[in-house]
Write a structure and sequence with these properties.
about 70 residues, alpha+beta, 4-stranded antiparallel β-sheet
Length: about 70
């Protein structure tokens, strides 16, 4: 499976990272049930963070595979 790490950004600075888990809709599945994360809001963007080979990327990917990693919470 390709290792994919997605970064979602909200206009206020909050970020969320989600790592692939081997399923096709790995990002969407996390939001198919009630959540406190307002994912579908105006101004929210999502991008793929390529693996740069760093220990930081690997650590974030490993944690984000288990559950979304959220930074700069408001």
């Amino acid at each position: 499976e390709p290792e994919r790490l997605l970064e979602t950004r909200w206009p206020g600075g909050r970020k969320m990272y989600v790592g692939s888990d081997g399923t096709v809709n790995y990002m969407l599945r996390k939001f198919m049930r009630p959540s406190k994360l307002p994912y579908f809001e105006p101004g929210v963007t999502t991008r793929l963070l390529p693996n740069d080979g760093s220990k930081g990327w690997r650590d974030l990917y490993t944690r984000a595979r288990v559950k979304p990693v959220i930074t700069n919470t408001q």
